[in-house]
Amino acid sequence: MTEAHVIVGLEVHCQLDTKSKLFCGCSTDYRNDGPNTHVCEVCLGLPGSMPVLNKRAIEFAMRVAKALSCEVLYESEFSRKNYFYPDLDKAYQITQYDKPLAEKGILEIDGDDGEKKVRITRIHVEEDPGRLVHMGNAERGRYSLVDYNRAGIPLIEIVTEPDMRSPKEARKFLNKLRATLEYLGVFDSEKEGSLRVDANISIKGSERVEIKNITSYKGVEKALTFEVTRQRNLLRRGQVVERETRHYLEARGVTQSARSKEMEHDYRYFPEPDLRPLQVRSWVDSIVLPELPDARRERFMVQYGCSVNHARTLTGELRLANFFEKVVEPDPAGLPALAATWIADILIGELNYRSMSLDLLEPATFTELIRLLKNGIITDKSGVEVLRVMLDQRLKSETTETPEVIVTRLRLAKTTGDDAALRTAIREAIAENQKALEDYRNGKAGALNFIVGQVMKKTRGRSDPAELNRLLQEELSKGA
Amino acid sequence: MVTEKDVEHIADLADIGMDSGELAPFTQQFNAIIDYFDILDRVKGEESGVRDLYNVMREDDPRPSLPQKDVLSNAPASEDGFIKAPRVM
Q: Among A281-285, B10-14, B32-36, where is mean pLDDT lowest?
């Protein structure tokens, strides 16, 4: 069975980056504060309190609708979704049901077989529930701790058609969606828990399974990959895939059956009587969209001569694209080639390795590093070393040494031909590797590379290999 | 018309334990409430309710929240600033 038989649709919940909650004035900046410190009568659902809709949340959702080429409904409204669970203080969630804000859109992704249009079914606005921490164990009494700081944070739910054909395509959709939302200025992916995904997945001809509550970008691909394997194994053994809801257990990388007692009609949706309907379709025309990822990618290729892969990587995240442009700003003609390579191929990996945010790095400092490389002051190898020192220092303190200071302190400047120490290193390497020398003299040209490598070791990677090769030949002809 | 089966199902969704002796009186009360709405529906008079009012919204201005101790004062139990709840699921 091939990947083509996998069918995936997503429901993506994203927190909108407003200052206050969806229906009350509580601040959304709760992540560094104690539990239940960003709550009021409204988001606690106390009797007599009334929700009032946050205009900016609707503006943000409309921006997304326009960017995804959705049709905004002439009239939309909020509904109550009733269920009983401690994360919902009111025993219902205010969401949109039969009259969502917008529907029928498109997001183009770089799919498994080239460009692909993923259809968007609908976009609706709703409030986030609270957060539960499960405590205790089977022996010592189980209970939950509830924090309502998150309750009432504005969310949009973006529902796709089942248009993705592999876990990898699902991840690519999410990456593209994340970039688009960030470019629109409505979403911050670095805020913990700002994105949650439910994924529907089936093997063609079989029942579909819903995987609930995946909380990371990588988690989506992992959960789906696990599920594809599980479902294929069932079919291979002649069993059937049951239609069910499963939970993704992030720590173990597996999905687990979750017996949900609610059927759709058990939510007893009805129009929210405390909120008036929306008629906002006419707003669409006044929304001016910023440059979006595809347009910026094209511009990076034209304006800076980036390769398509570098342009795609650099524009795939707003922070990265902004960083690149700031780095090359002092010399937009001379710096982009090296800067693109060093950011896309080296910096990203070094940041990921340290789980470090790009925000901690000053673009001007990086520009300085690129200049040292461009002007031949240091080798690529030393460049990586300087970068690592900078990142490690920045993780520990507010400031770092400049690249130039690091180069001086660690004596990383590239060796030159009139460097006595280099000449000594070359002579030593020759003396210590007579066997290789003999091979070289017997016509094995590759043997010289071995000696170059030995000199490189002695100079801690500070020499340019081509230059070294030339000096080494020079030294050998002297001796001959 | 609400049946005892409806009440039993709703009680189950809400995780409210209800013994068989309670079902009949609750069903009777549910029906009495719903019947009362039928009476309200028959009331003649001016059309009530808000019409032609759309897009009621506020600006995105944060306002102070309640002090944590006030928030927790309504909770039957709390722990480290969290509200303590029975574990469901």
A: B10-14
Q: Are A258 and A227 in contact (CB under 8 A)?
A: no
ipTM over 0.90: no
Report which secondary-structure segment, H or E, holds A264: none
Which of A144, A267, A282 is the best substitution to test chain B (most B C-beta atoms within 10 A)? A144
Number of Cα atoms under 13 Å in the Cβ half of residue A321: 22
SS3 content of chain B, % helix, strand, coil (to 5): 45, 10, 45
Q: Which residue of B has its CA nearest to A34?
A: B81
* pLDDT, tens digit, 9 for 90 and up, residues A357-390: 999 999 999 999 999 999 888 888 889 999 999 9
E strand map for A128-237: 131-135, 143-147, 154-160, 195-203, 209-214
Report the SS3 class of residue A28.
coil
Instruction: Return the pLDDT at A15.
Output: 97
Q: Find the distance separating the first CA and the last CA of chain B, reported in whole Å.
A: 31
DSSP character for B54?
A: -
User: Poorest-confidence range of A54-63, A466-475, B61-70?
Assistant: A466-475
Using a CB-CB distance cutoff of 8 angstroms, which residues of chain A are in contact with residue B56?
A: 52-53, 275-276
**A52 and A138 together in one domain:** yes
Q: State the smallest CA–CA distance between residue A55 and chain B in angstroms.
A: 5
Contact A40/A24 with Cβ under 8 angstroms?
yes
CA-based nearest residue to A152, from A132, A131, A133, A124: A131
The reply to whether B33 falls in a domain is yes
Number of domains composing chain B: 1
Determine the structural domain holding residue A469 and report its residue range: 420-478
Q: pLDDT digit string (tens) for A248-260?
A: 998 888 998 887 6
A207 and A161 belong to one structural domain: yes
- How many Cβ atoms are within 10 Å of A69's Cβ, its own excluded? 14
Helix pair angle (A420-432, A465-479), 10° resolution:
70
Determine the residue of chain B that is closest to A46 in CA distance.
Answer: B74
Q: Are A165 and A7 in contact (CB under 8 A)?
A: yes
In which domain, by residue range, is B23 found? Answer: 4-42
Domain total for chain A? 3
> What is the 3 state secondary structure string of A55-114?
HHHHHHHHHHHHHCCCEECCCECCEEEECCCCCCCCCEEEECCCCCCEEEEEEEEEECCE
Chain B residue numbers touching A27 (CB-CB < 8 A): 62, 65
Asked if residue B89 belongs to a domain, the reply is: no
